[in-house]
Hints:
The chain is an alpha/beta fold. Helix content is 23%, strand content 30%. β22 (435-440), α12 (448-460) and β23 form a beta-alpha-beta unit.
Amino acid sequence: xxxxxxxxxxxxxxxxxxxxxxxxxxxxxxxxxxxxxxxxxxxxxxxxxxxxxxxxxxxxxxxxxxxxxxxxxxxxxxxxxxxxxxxxxxxxxxxxxxxxxxxxxxxxxxxxxxxxxxxxxxxxxxxxxxxxxxxxxxxxxxxxxxxxxxxxxxxxxxxxxxxxxxxxxxxxxxxxxxxxxxxxxxxxxxxxxxxxxxxxxxxxxxxxxxxxxxxxxxxxxxxxxxxxxxxxxxxxxxxxxxxxxxxxxxxxxxxxxxxxxxxxxxxxxxxxxxxxxxxxxxxxxxxxxxxxxxxxxxxxxxxxxxxxxxxxxxxxxxxxxxxxxxxxxxxxxxxxxxxxxxxxxxxxxxxxxxxxxxxxxxxxxxxxxxxxxxxxxxxxxxxxxxxxxxxxxxxxxxxxxxxxxxxxxxxxxxxxxxxxxxxxxxxxxxxxxxxxxxxxxxxxxxxxxxxxxxxxxxxxxxxxxxxxxxxxxxxxxxxxxxxxxxxxxxxxxxxxxxxxxxxxxxxxxxxxxxxxxxxxxxxxxxxxxxxxxxxxxxxxxxxxxxxxxxxxxxxxxxxxxxxxxxxxxx
Length: 570
């Protein structure tokens, strides 16, 4: 929450809250709407009914009546306050368009009784067609709120349709997450073990072992891992992907101009490779002027800045070519603009172009903070991060870049706004590019483990998110926000949460009996498997020479149901 900013207009919705059965609420977990950003001529209807708090002019108003909200702050009708309950999650949705102008951000804001504001979500609205605004609030205390629309344009004229606020208990929200996880993280797999004549091999045993999960929960590491055997053993026993906190950054590898030192980064990479741990590169450049090497800060000549920057990009990217899964190319280039001020407005796009030419196969990230974790953010909002990625991809020669979006996730030590987080991930995912949570952490607080569990599950249950890296470690590592184990490597509460998800998001080894029916449409005998690579072994307790092994890939690209046929030559 924060106080009202006089530079942004707020237009109060003149609404009456009714608990009704309606057909216009947008389900925040709907795959049909979650990644939808196109502007439509008529707002579609939804079949969602349960738990809907409908915002309307009157109880009798079930029509498609539109709301017209002007930027002068005036309202024609008396506003009604809405009573929210602590412990519940409220998902907001509305279809909005502009009556004048075009391409302006429109957001939803909740104002509490004491006048403080909670920003709940935003969308880029247009004239002549409808855009879906999503978001919500998780109130820290019970009490009344007013709902407003917000725009950066004081003269904006907004029309809204199908406004709704849907209430979820924490249990209902988790049930929705679990249902979506079944759809987006797993496939139904049917094994058919037959003889050549197509008759089933009855009582055949199919053993499954997942060798590689496709969704990765990783952890950052720092140079202290080189100094502690316990740290190394603990890390290697858990994580399959990492990023280095500072060891690859320019101010670490070239403290003195022309004298590069990659010793720490090379040693950490060697440890990762020896333990089959993937590494995500962080970072080629950083747009924060304070985070340049001390000697770079002193350079005033733009041409000299360009020369040393090009040398840096070539040096670090060629050194680690084909060794990393991705790179943050220009870190935090919405919050900061050092290179843009020194080298021109297209500096970031040019550097992504060079990075792509040096290593065409590596994924190149835009990496920002406050995008999913801070609804009140104005600089790196989900809309702006999406537009930054579009700007980079639109630059000449960048159209084939393997782009991705990194949402850092530095959450404050309070109840996370899961409804806003889901809507923010919807916006980021609407480009169709991979989204990663890249630096997840939270300062210590009494409910840290609970909050981190909610954040991790929210990210895992979103279809756009392909992986998570937490900024955490053992006490010996010096990660003082998220400490996963103490000095004796015993788990903290947050460590228990992390281990729980590492286990839950990895398929258990299992054995199933072959159940083969002629009717392929029946799901009898189907098993639900997490996406990943598997070693499959087919054997039979009475047939000694029946022992067949194969590799299986379970992936969303295969469709929701895969059929694996094994023909036995016997």
